[in-house]
Amino acid sequence: MKPFISLNELYTLFISCDQKITTDTRQIEKGSIFFALKGDNFDANTFAVSAIEQGCLFAVVDNPNFANGTSILLVEDVLDTLQNLAKFHRSQLKIPVIGITGSNGKTTNKELIHAVLSKKYNTYATKGNLNNHIGVPLTVLKIQKEHEFAIVEMGANHQGEIAMLCDICDPDFGLITNIGKAHLEGFGGEEGIKIGKSELYKYIEKKNGKIFINGNDPVLIELSRSIEKIYFGEHNSFDVYGELANNSEFVELKWNTKSDSLYNERLISTHLFGHYNFVNVICAICIGNYFGVEKHFINDAISNYMPEMNRSQVKKTNKNTLILDAYNANPSSMMLAIKHFVRQPFPNKYVVLGDMFELGDYSYQEHKLILDQLFIHPDVKCLLVGTHFNQFKNNYLGFSFCENINLAQNFIEKNKIADFAILIKGSRGIALEKLVPLL
Predict the structure, then answer these.
(1) Nearest Cα to 305, choosing from 270, 353, 355?
(2) What is the pTM of this model?
(3) What is the pLDDT of residues 99-149, one digit of tens each?
(4) 148 and 123 in contact (C-beta within 8 Å)?
(5) CATH 3.40.1390.10 corresponds to the domain 7-76
(6) Fewest beta carbons less than 10 Å away: which of 8, 23, 47, 244?
(7) Which CATH number is 93-304's, of 1.10.1040.50, 3.90.360.10, 3.40.1190.10, 3.30.70.60?
């Protein structure tokens, strides 16, 4: 059998390929190394030769039957090798890394922090939501020698996963955005979520690092008693504090620092819908301030940040005003979005919600809680999409229910919804963004 390539040898080839990695033969980057990762329904070892033919310089496989030729490299396990390569690469980097996790707002926080820190530093941040056991190593392996800062987003749906991801990206600073009702099934309930998410705190504490923390969040304060903290929030005793400036549907705020009472507070208007985003904004301000980004640059970064990927976006069409928060959903984020939306002075309000996934035994009660919240607002029209919501169709008269996205598309085409402000939110698998062209 062909001998296994060592990690040091592989790292040398990785650097010689300008740190270019491919994991999908449908998106080959010429001159890269192809890692033959297995999926639920495929074995990428079978694509190794094709990857070379399409322009990859090397392919990494773990099935010796496909390890033919000098360009195809054999390892014991491709995924383990990818993760170990990333861990080794991280050990070569002498830059600060901020690790981010939490139930809600990870990507928004990451993007805001990236916008602020980029005003002073050459900063690399997780692209999109590459935040799992494959995405985190790919993120780390993209960090170049010219980068001065890195921000790594970490997602998880079971205990032990954040600890494993921390071991790969080795963060010096940590941020848990919040702990809410996300992935209840995998974590085994809310207490399981606390244990899983706080693995980041434990890693930072062991490393003698620091965390950025919302001083108004008692759950996070309790979980971080013995760790050095930089506080942000709404109290003037915090390192950075702020307050909402008005009741606009967008976040508008003023902020200051505990150490700089002479700073002339300036109103910052953002493009982020929802007052629940205030804490995300003040967090990014705090991190920028801690790392010496000048205040006017922080303000510019925040005010010019444009949300993307169906996260807290406002989109005006020829027929309606859409509040697009359709990238994903869990009970905590959905409840916050609804409560903010119904308070806004829109003359006509419509809510389009999709099922929330990965709730396990908690699914029935959490979907019912959402419907109960909507029921107390009879002025708000509602369309519920998905089988979890659909089981209540005979209990909430006046609501519209569609079992899947195709039926929802048919419903909207027939009902010609116009002149509404429409909140759109649901789990990724429901794909509510498909409704946008019809609204």
Answers:
(1) 270
(2) 0.90
(3) 999 988 889 999 999 999 999 999 999 998 889 999 999 999 999 999 999
(4) yes
(5) yes
(6) 8
(7) 3.40.1190.10
